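look at this:
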Amino acid sequence: MAEALLRAERVSKRFGKFTAVNQVTLEIEAGVLTSIIGPNGAGKTTLINVLTGSLPCDSGRIFFNGEDITHLPTDRRVRKGLSRSFQITNIFPQMTVEQNILLPLLARQGRTGQPFARYDSYADTLAEAESLLRELGLWEMRDAPASELSHGDQRRLEIGMALAPHPRLCFLDEPTSGMNPLERAEVLEAIRGLAAEHDVTFVVVEHDMDMVFSVSERIVVMHRGEILADGTPAEIRDNREVREVYLGEAID
């Protein structure tokens, strides 16, 4: 059985009287590309926010690499190897593409006091930035302000920024949102390649069913803040309850 990188035990998150995540128990296994799906309001993003530290959980415990991280702040979780991208593109638009990648690289190395004052002297960091940008297909645009990138390229840049801290586990929240079919295919291929090249486990929160069923080895279905089903793509396709509450004919 694959090693559990992350384990959530009976995790809940409430907003007033509304329970967004209700007693969720979940294990994320190393090396298994997992997708989390569900209708709007199912609690997917809230669960990711809790697991990565953007929101505190109201009850339950979270373990990463066997260590209890329930009360650790986000930056401590990142340093331990847990990162994420966001549903809304979260880049620095006025910085160049290369600077966007360099910033988290320098942060990982503890060099953020004056991040760009003499960064040209950091040959190792520049080489790593170049390698990552080439993998993402963004090297030729390295000197352009990030705001000038297409929406699809901005999403790829954000994935690169999430990978810069060298995570073992990376959550991608709707990485193909707003993309055309060609861009979605390119990002899908990039995720596959990056998972292998960087030895990182991806968990994808996604609405695009074509992407989910083509890229995933495991699919977790959420409904009303709870896990409705958990299995292989074939098992999820054949799950009658999933069809009734969410997927319907879309999975055909």
